[in-house]
């Protein structure tokens, strides 16, 4: 047997994202020991029972000793505090990456905490959420054929970026690379805004006195449109704040589009309305075909 | 063998909805002959080849002769013209129903065309769309455990409503009854508005010069949120116009909710934002559990 890619992996936040990363590496035989760190003892116990981690630690020095790779997989709102706690105990050879859904704020937090050691931090984002959360939702195949975006920094040694790239490749992910700024703007369009729109639809209906009757008439379209409205509230609150600027810009563009649809419907402009819907259908169908 | 529920069924519009209705009744042995009527000869030929219909007719007199039930399954924008063409040839014993996604406008069109014979028309709406359309998308199990809303009229004989109810029961559907007005208001909330929101997201992104790059970063949340954006443009154009008033009222309520989210994000109100998202998650989760 050749040595695994990662001798010791530390996962901070042993939920769906961190747990699935560990499970995928373990399934491939590419990790020696997995150490779990997190604020919830219940999650750590559950992760131990499920075999996602080999050891749970609440002490940074013990957790980080001999670590080859650290995966930060908590909600992005906790990045600052976690990085500040971790850094004094971080060995010089250890590579740190993250799974945060926003990159600009995470890189800013990392620059502040890591300082001259920023080269050790390789930012990343697996685009593979699910409405389920927690260790019990973790699956070794979560990342198969899913997109992972890395936003490497000028300070990263190529060996550090390679380690993170290889780890995701072992998980079966498709890897893209771009800048943190592009990442945040694009993700605001295709992920953060859709989540906001889906939350808003459901929370508005839920407030109504006859909500249950209305929901009873909902069908498959509603089910799919609102699946992401069951996503984790704290995680999404953090993402909306972390990517506020790009998200609000996307929201403005979207509101303008909605106003255009309203105008077409009010004025009875059948040809333009059908063309606009047709352009959505064509783009959605082409995308689905590219996804295979 | 006992006689089938429907000796002769006429399906006007042999696409996903009408074709699946015929296929389900046939699978259950509850239809004798299925006659297909429609403006597209390609669809009729395809429906014949697939065995969805036994006979295609373009002449109303030939199509309606001896018909027990007529299912109107074209886009709602064609109801007026179809009903006007059909009525002079409609036998007195024949029950007519429809699958239109809006009911107020269909009932208004029916009252105008049927006049004193309005008792023959039992309005209905199966909530079982799909992004696919056409005869090849038809499936005998499309309506299993799906909701069908009937909005019977005061003039309907109970035997006419019963026939339609039994036909849908044979298809495996769950049947609700309400007024056309309630139907339209509720469907605007849980179906028409979500379609509009999904079309708007995709058509806005599709216009951008870097649309393909952006779409490439889209994941599972985007896939589900935008599935309905691949729906049939003409059908949805018609629905938006047919249910314009209720839809625009829902859109206004939604825009107010979006403005509230914007305010929470701009002001950094973490507690209220998390609570609002939490209320969406709770309502969505409870609904999914009721659906089983």
TrEMBL record, chains A, B:
InterPro entries: 6-PGluconate_DH-like_C_sf, NAD(P)-bd_dom_sf, PDH_C, PDH_N, Preph/Arog_dehydrog, Prephen_DH. This is Prephenate dehydrogenase. One of its GO terms (biological process) is tyrosine biosynthetic process. It comes from Methyloversatilis universalis (strain ATCC BAA-1314 / DSM 25237 / JCM 13912 / CCUG 52030 / FAM5). One of its GO terms (molecular function) is prephenate dehydrogenase (NADP+) activity. It holds the Pfam family PDH_C. Signal peptide: none annotated. PANTHER family: PREPHENATE DEHYDROGENASE, PREPHENATE DEHYDROGENASE [NADP(+)]. Coiled coil: none annotated. Residues 7-292 form the Prephenate/arogenate dehydrogenase domain.
